[in-house]
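Appendix B. One record, verbatim.
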Amino acid sequence: MSRESPCLRVPKTLGQKTITLAAKLGLRDGKLENQKDACFIYVPLVRQPTEEEKAAFKEQKIDFLLEIRVFQERKQQEKTLVDVLEKALPSHLLAILPRALDIVGDIAIIEIPSELKTNERLIGAAILEAHKNVRMVLAKAGVVSGDYRLRDFDVIAGEPRTRTVHKEFGCTYQVDVAKAYFSPRLSNEHKRVASLVQSGETVVDLFAGVGPFAVPIAKSHKDVKVYSVDLNPDAVELLRTNARLNRVENRVFPILGDARKIVEEKLEGVADRVIMNLPEKAIEFVDVACKAIKPEGGMVHFYAFVREPDSIDALKARFSEAVASSGRHVEKFLLAKIVRETAPYECQVVLDANIV
C-alpha cells in the first residue's frame, strides 16, 4: 500500500538528524517508509509543520524543502531505538544515540557516548524492546587490545553472560565475546573469501579466532584443508567446537600457538591461500605468509587499518615492499577495497594479492 504525505527533503548527510528531530516534534510518520535518492532523503510527516517547528529545524541548521510525495507503508512496524526512547530522552541526547550496534547471536554490543553514560541502563532496556531476538546488551568498556584482541564490556541489560550461538550464512558458531575476538561486521568477507577457494586447496588462516573464515571454507569444499592458527587458547577451543558443530573437523585443523613459530615448524610452503585477518599487526607477519605460500605461489588475503591521510595505494606499496623483503613479489593485486569503517577517518581494508 502507498499514500501521499507531506515530507521533508534534506541532504543525505542530514538524514538521521532530521528523522530524530521530526520524531521528537511528533511530526514523523512512522507508518511510512523513508525514501532516498542519490543526494536526498525524504522524511514523511503526519502533517505540515508549524512555523515554530520549521524554526526548530533551522535552529539545528537543517536545510530542508517541504514536498508532497507518495510513500510506501511499512509492512510490519518495527521500533527503532529512537522510537522507543523519543519520549524518555531530550532531543539533544536522542541526536547522539548510537546508530549502529553489533548483534552476535542473542547478544547486542553497543558503544555508549560519555554524554549518555548515565542513561545506559535505559538504552539497554530499549534495545531489548526494539530487538526481540536479543536477550542481553553489552556496552563497550574499552578498546580492543592485547595479543588476543579482546575488550572489556559492561552488562547494561538482560542476562549476565558473554557466550552465545551465532549463525552466519548457514554456519553455526559458539562465540564468547569476552574471551575471543569475533566481528559480525565481517560476515560478507567470510562468505566472499570462502567463495574464492578452489577445490583441493590448502588454506592457512594465520589468525583464525573461532573459525569464521575456516568453517565456511570447509563447508563449501569437501576436499580442502584449512590449517587454523591462533595464539588464544579460548579461541582455539571454540574453533574446535565450531568445527564439530558444522561437521568439518576432518577439514579444519586448529593449531594453538604463535603464527610465526607454527609456520616455521609445520606449515612452510604448504598453502595455496593465506588469510591474514589481524589488521592491527598483519604487516608484521607478511614474511610469515610468504613462507607459508607454496614455492610456485599463491593468494594472500591481507587485512589492515587505513587512517587518513594514509591511502589504500600507500598500503599496497607497504605490503609490496614487505613481500619483496621476504624474497618474493606481488604478481598482481586482484582486489583492494574498504571492508568497513572502524572509526572517524579510519577504515579496514582488504588486499587480495597474488604472490609468486
